[in-house]
């Protein structure tokens, strides 16, 4: 990993702070605005680290998040996934550079087309690509963000399963 207090890592820590503030929002609009701000800071972090593919993925992700506020269809998800792959292939210097592209494509399918437990499971899968990419690139903040999202995703998945189990038990008692 790069020096702990270097400019790239400081930007990563700032992105982590923005992500934490975003996750704590109870208002969906505020959450999405904080997500957009976090993507901008994190993209800057990856530019300074020299991971242009990851920065490009994050910048496309800003537009994806705005579009996903209003539209939910497989076509939208596929359009963004194709855009991610086109950009990634054009900018990559080695196949490992496609880790964030694959993760973002999986994430897009989840956010735009799925909901509930299915969405959470797919988001958890996508987080492993973000974790791997952060390790490869040397992003401490990115690793912390992706790890936090993985843990929160697992906790939320557990809570959803627990709620579903209670609902199923209540239905059986009728």
Primary descriptors:
7 helices, single chain, mainly alpha, globular, 174 residues
Provide a brief overview of the structure.
By secondary structure, this protein is mostly helical. It contains 7 helices and no strands. The protein has one domain.
Question: How is this structure best described in words?
Answer:
- The protein has one domain (7-172).
- 83% of the residues lie in helices and 0% in strands.
- The protein has seven helices and no strands.
- α4 runs antiparallel to α5 (99-113).
The residue-averaged pLDDT reads: 91
Content of β-strand: under 5%
Shape: globular
Distance between the termini: 57 Å
Structural class, please? mainly alpha
Query: In DSSP terms, counting alpha (H) and pi (I) runs of 4 or more, how many helices?
Result: 7
Q: Which stretches of 5+ consecutive residues score pLDDT under 50? A: none
State the domain count: 1
Radius of gyration, whole Å: 17 Å
Helix content class = over 70%
- Compressed to H and E, one letter per element, the order equals HHHHHHH
The description of the largest β-sheet is: none
The total strand number stands at: 0
Keywords: Membrane, Transmembrane, Transmembrane helix
Transmembrane segments: 36-62, 74-92, 98-114, 121-137, 143-161
InterPro entries: Uncharacterised_HI1736/YgjV
Pfam families: Imp-YgjV
Describe the protein's topology:
Layout: H1 7-23, H2 28-49, H3 52-68, H4 74-91, H5 99-113, H6 116-137, H7 140-172
Helix pairs in contact: 1-2, 1-7, 2-3, 3-4, 3-5, 4-5, 5-6, 6-7
């Amino acid at each position: 990993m790069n020096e702990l207090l270097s400019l790239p890592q400081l930007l990563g820590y700032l992105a982590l702070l923005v992500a934490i503030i975003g996750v704590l929002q109870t208002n969906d609009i505020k959450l999405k605005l904080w997500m957009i701000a976090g993507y901008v800071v994190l993209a800057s972090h990856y530019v300074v680290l020299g991971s242009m593919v990851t920065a490009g993925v994050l910048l496309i992700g800003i537009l994806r998040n705005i579009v996903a506020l209003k539209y939910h269809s497989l076509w939208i998800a596929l359009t963004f996934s194709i855009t991610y792959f086109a950009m990634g292939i054009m900018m990559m210097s080695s196949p490992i550079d496609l880790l964030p592209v694959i993760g973002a494509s999986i994430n897009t399918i989840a956010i735009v087309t799925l909901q509930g437990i299915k969405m959470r499971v797919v988001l958890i899968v996508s987080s492993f690509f973000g974790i791997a990419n952060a390790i490869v690139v040397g992003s401490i903040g990115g690793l912390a963000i992706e790890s936090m999202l993985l843990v929160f995703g697992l906790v939320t998945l557990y809570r959803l399963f627990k709620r579903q189990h209670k609902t199923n038990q209540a239905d059986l008692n009728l």
